[in-house]
Structure formats: C-alpha cells, structure tokens
Amino acid sequence: MGRLLSHTTLLGLLGLVSAGCPFADPSALRARADGDTDPVLGAMVDDSNGFFTDDVGGQIQEQDSLRAGERGPTLLEDYIFRQKITHFDHERVPERAVHARGAGAHGTFTSYGDWSNLTAASFLGTAGKETPVFVRFSTVAGSRGSADTARDVHGFATRFYTDEGNFDIVGNNIPVFFIQDAIRFPDLIHSVKPSPDSEIPQAATAHDSAWDFFSQQPSTLHTLFWAMAGFGIPRSFRHMDGFGVHTFRLVKDDGTSKLVKWHWKTKQGKASLYWEEAQILAGKNADAHRQDLFEAIESGNGPEWELAVQVVDEDQALAFGFDLFDPTKILPEEYAPLQKLGVMKLHTNPTNYFAETEQIMFQPGHIVRGVDFTEDPLLQGRIFSYLDTQINRHGGPNFEQLPINRPVIPIHNNNRDGAGQNLIHKNIHAYSPNSLNDGYPQQASQSSGRGFFSAPIRSTSGRLVRGLSSTFDDHWSQPRLFYNSLTPVEQQFLINAIRFETSHLTSTTVKQNVLTQINKISNDIAVRVATALGLEAPAPDDTYYHDNTTIGISITNVTLPSVATLKVGILASTSKANGTNALDQAKTLKTRLANENLTSTVVAETLVDGVDKTYSAADATDFDAVIVVSGADSAGLFALSAANLSPLYPPLRPLQIATTAYLFGKPVAYFGAAAPSDPLVAGGLDPKTEGVYASADVETLATGLVGGLKTFKFTGRYPVDKTT
Ligand code: HEM
After folding, report:
1. 0.90 surpassed by pTM
2. pLDDT per residue as tens digits for the range 17-48
3. Measuring CA to CA, which residue among 219, 215, 158, 116 is closest to residue 515?
4. 172 catalytic per annotation
C-alpha cells in the first residue's frame, strides 16, 4: 500500500501515527526534501521523555530477562532479551583500514566571493554563500583505540554538503604523500602497521619493516621528512594546516580548466609538540587531540581554516622542474601564490560519535560540477579504493543513505535495493531510458540541467604503460628543499626523530639503506644520524644537493595569531604557610587570564573549593604554559627534599610539572616575586632564558605570559648538534 502513496502522504501518515506515539520521530524516516540544509537533523532521536520500546515500537521493560521461575533459566522466547543482546553483539563495524583513529565536527564554509572565474562549483559561486561541512581529523597507522599523539601523517577530510551534491576534500596535514602510484598503497600500509606475528608496535613507524620500505622506496622520503619534523606531532588538530595533496582541476562553465592545489590554512596558527612531550601525552591522555577539539567547540571557540588554492595553467604541469601530477611534490608558493576562496568554521560537535564520525564515508570520488580529477596515478587509484573499502565496512552499497552521508538535496537515480535500503522508491520503472515514467529521472548534461562534466583537456599518451613517467623520478631535491626551509632547531628535531626511529631498527642492512637514501638528500644529515647509530656515514652523494629554500614551511618561526583556548596550569597549594594564600593568588591570575580567553587550571593537593585538578592527576603535558604561585612555593611544595614527599601525589610532582614544562620549551612564570625561587632554579629552570617570567604584578605577568604563548615554543632551550 505504501508504494501507492505519494511521498508526502506517506510522511503525513507517519506523522499521524506518531501523533499518538510521543517517542517516535517520523522525520528520522524521511528522505531529503528540497531546502533541507542540515545534514543530520532529520535523524535525531530524542529520548528526553517516553517509555522504552523494542525495535519495532512496542513498550517494554528491558532490564530483567524472562526466566522459568525466579531462579530458573532464561527462556528462548524472550524476544526482548534476544533483540537487545543481538543488537549489542553487532554493535561494532570494521574500523577503517587506515585512518581508523579520528575525531570530527560539523561546521560551515563561507565563500569569500563569486569564483566563477575559476570554477562552476555552486558553493563557490556567490560571496557569503554558506555550505554545511563535516570534518574528520585522523592519524593513519594506529587502530581505533590508539593514542592521538602518535607521530604520523594526520588526515584532514572535509565534506561539503553543497546544493549540487557532496564534495569531499580527503586530504592530509602534510602536502605530499609517500608513494606515487596507488598500486603500492597496500605495501606502504603493510610496512607501517604492527608486525603480523606480535601485533606490535601500535601506531608507530620506529621498526624495521617501516624503514625497510622507506629506504627501498625513495618516493617516501619527502613525506617522511615532513612527518619526522613537527608536522607529525601537531599541538592539536586545530593547530595544523590541511592539503588536498594531489593536483586537481577546477572547471568553468565554458569548459576551460586550470590545475589547482587545495590548501586549508589554520587561523589558530601552526604549532607542534616536542617529541618527548607527545610520547608522555600518549600515555597520560590518549584522547588529547579529540578532547581539545571537542572542548574548544563546546566552549564556543570552534576552530577556523581558510580554503586557498594555488592555480596554474593546464600547460604548466611540467613547467617548474617537476611533474605536477606527482603527489610527492609541493608546488612552492614562489611559483603560484595562495589565493583564498573562503573560510570554514567548526561549531558543532557530533551528537553521536558512531552515527556521525564513524559512519561518515569520505571519498576523493565525491566531486561536484566545477571540480575534476587529474591524471595523478595515486589519485586515480584512490577514486576506486574508498568506495570499495566502504562497501566492506558497511556490508553493502547503501551507506550513502546514512544521515551523515546523505546529500542535502534529493537523490534521483535507478540504484535500487541492497542491504539496509532506507529509501522507498516510487518509480517502478527503474531503468533508463524509459517512457513509462515519462523519461524520468532525466539525464543532466552541461546544457540540460546543471550536469557534471569532465574537463575536456586530458593528456593521454595513446599507449598502455605499466610504470611511472620519468618525470616522477627525482625523489631527493624536494626533501632537501623542505630541510633547507626549516630553522636550525627544526632541522635538529627532524634529525632527532630519524635518530629515534632508526635506533629501534634491528637490521643493519636497513640502517645502511636509510643512510644511503638520506645521504642523497644531505651528507650533513647522514653524518649526524650515522653518529647516533654508531655507524660510518657514506661519502657525499651530491647529485641532488642544492641551497634553495621556500616559504611557509617553518612552524616555530611564526607566532600564533591568538592564544584563545590555550591551556595554562597554575601550580598552587591548599596550605597557607608563611602567610601567602596560594589559592587567592591563583584566583587573581585565573580571573585575569580569562580576559585573554585562556583556559586556566588551578592545581593543588586536594580538590577543595578553587582547585580544578590535583597534583596527582596533573602533568606538564596538560598545559601550554605553567605558572608557579609564590604561596605554593613558600609552602615548600617545590623543595627538593624528603620533607616534600606527600602521599597525595607522586614524588616531587609540583617541581616536575614546572621544570618539565620548561624543558618542553613552554612559557613558565612565577607569580609573587621578581624571580623564581631557588628550588625551581635548582630543578633546572633558568630564569635568564627567554620565555621565563616573574613578577608580583598580575598585569605584568599576564602580558609576558600571553606574549610567551604566542611564541609557543622557546626553541633556544633545545640543544643543537655542535657539527652544524
Ligand atoms: C594523497 C594520498 C592520500 C591521502 C591524502 C589520504 C587521505 C585519507 C584520509 C584523510 C582518510 C580518512 C578519511 C576519514 O576521515 O574518514 C583516508 C582513508 C582511507 N584511505 Fe587514504 N589517503 C591517501 C592515499 C590513499 C591511497 C593511495 C589509498 C589506496 C589506494 C587510500 C586508501 C584509503 C582507505 C581504504 C581509507 C579508509 C576509508 C574508509 O574506511 O572510509 N588512501 N585517506
């Protein structure tokens, strides 16, 4: 009968049924209608009132199973028990084959202008036009329960719910990729995932197989260098840029096209962790990044990124000394400046992680009119892979009908049936061409409707080749360009990361192969790594050596535009020894720092009024800056003595927080006197270095600290190899 009803009548009936049934939400069953711009609202289930029901609507009590007598066995007829347990037994779906660990949020993209001079894409067609988005950030190698701060490339996948269909930029926080041909992707992933016998290490590349692959496949070197530098360990998802990685095409209504690179530029500024800090954080708070994103959005400080493109003419793919279709190459900004097209703000957290973040299925193949692919062989393979793997994850082809995946416009096609079919198609003539449904749905083309069309210009060689173009051959010049563009301390971090990773290798052959490859980039790096490994470095191999640099690479030589939502730990005490009330001092500071939109946490021995966290639960990795109040110092909390041991926190924890924050390059301040006290200095805090502030005046202290937080990391505190 339902098939004979019009869609509106069907929904009307559902509405009528639900009028007598306060806990069913008929909108959860509806298909999309015109003008419906919220991706998930229609699927919300509101449990704020009503009785429990079974899965088909009957009211039930579901806390006790049905048994044969009070102390007897459970009955097979207990459909309530079976339904609940069966559903639970099937709660998990396969995690993503890669990028399993992630966090996401809803937001809005706003176009800065009418970009029809570049593209026919409707979401970029009008200044001020708003498009809903969902973004998922991720790491690549770790499984779904792995730690957020593992060193890794980070996924940055954005779904635009445009009024002409869904468009996904499935990118990363690093502008290049490890391989040039998608057929090698399983090899890459098998090499970085845990060992098949021991299933270790989790979310880490510091092992033989990863570096064996890296050193045998030099196309990996450029991405590897970015990952070994700060880009592999961002301060948070909010403090990283995003990249589409491949070169894409933007196509205009007249069919002409340009080659483009997508960029997301963080408005929070780029910032990274220190490797030691990232490792500690992985244990102390495995959820650090997802928590940071969630809390920033909850507090109304949703992060923002500007969408920018680098645009070049179709005939310039080989004009810059490398191939623009090679995804291991950046397009230096000196050749093509960034052109900002719009801004995205994330403002709403998911209501249900599984339904939204876990079930969103991004695809590089989700493109809209005005956007097109290029011949990049990695991109070409990705267009196939995501759809394929998502059919596996969902168990069928209907995952695009899930609320988070549905476009905000109606779907009309002849795809039918399959597991979990959610739509009720009225058209019984599901074939095309047809006359019995009056020829509908009609074919849309460039001239009829707003049909997608491929950019007509494509280079084809006309013969079949199983292999990569020789224009993809240079794997060493751009890693060197990247390295040359870092500050000396950032170069040191990169070298330290390679030292850390390669020191875990057991195979001497792999170590030697790594040195051979690095030596093609720089003999200096090879020598410095070899020294740490106790090996002899090879003689310089200088074919690809050069002194070129490019802009926009360094993380630490740019200050943050804003300190909003950064975290400050105020180390206080519940003791009022020697007359200074540490909690009063902490309160004064907290009030002042709130004016800067900083998130302050008062730390003390116990959770009395005015204390946010105990010393037992706190750690230097919780904070971007740390302030010691003199009252806590006078109470003896920082003394290097047995008298300072307390059962309320691990030995010397207050001192450890202050001095570790200092060692991790964070701003550290002392409130209540003109200089930090002796115990802190004895603990390693050098009051004469940049980024250490001391004052009895709250205003002076706050001003210094805010400046320090904008610098974020005081890199002068890190030693650099003497050989440089
Ligand atoms: C430029 C290179 C690449 C980038 C930037 C990239 C980026 C991403 C991102 C961001 C995700 C996570 C999407 C999400 O949050 O749900 C992802 C997932 C995935 N990627 Fe890639 N990837 C690249 C290369 C490849 C290649 C070459 C393949 C295979 C041929 C591949 C296969 C996959 C698969 C199977 C998933 C899991 C998808 C899912 O289950 O929904 N990726 N990738």
Report:
1. yes
2. 333 333 334 444 344 555 567 888 888 999 99
3. 215
4. yes
